[in-house]
Design goal:
By secondary structure, the chain is mostly helical. It has one domain. Helix content is 72%, strand content 0%. The chain contains four helices and no strands. α1 crosses α3. The termini are far apart. 0% of the residues are buried.
């Protein structure tokens, strides 16, 4: 079976308002379920692709700072 995760996630969030989208993200993180990670990855991809290079570098800096080696 070939399932388009990106398309499904985008379709599901298109009609959400800011509050609903915030709730989705916070619930996905707080539940900590592995099955929710692909959806969060799609959301991150959208953010990344729509960020300028300075914003992308800021995200990388945050990741490096918060994920200790």
């Amino acid at each position: 079976m070939n399932f388009n995760i990106r398309g499904a996630v985008i379709h599901n969030i298109q009609q959400m308002d800011n509050s609903e989208l915030t709730g989705l993200i916070e619930d996905s993180i707080s539940q900590g379920e592995e099955k929710l990670l692909p959806g969060l990855g799609v959301l991150f991809e959208v953010i990344w692709k729509n960020s300028d290079p300075n914003e992308q570098q800021n995200m990388i800096d945050i990741l490096h700072e918060k994920i200790q080696k």
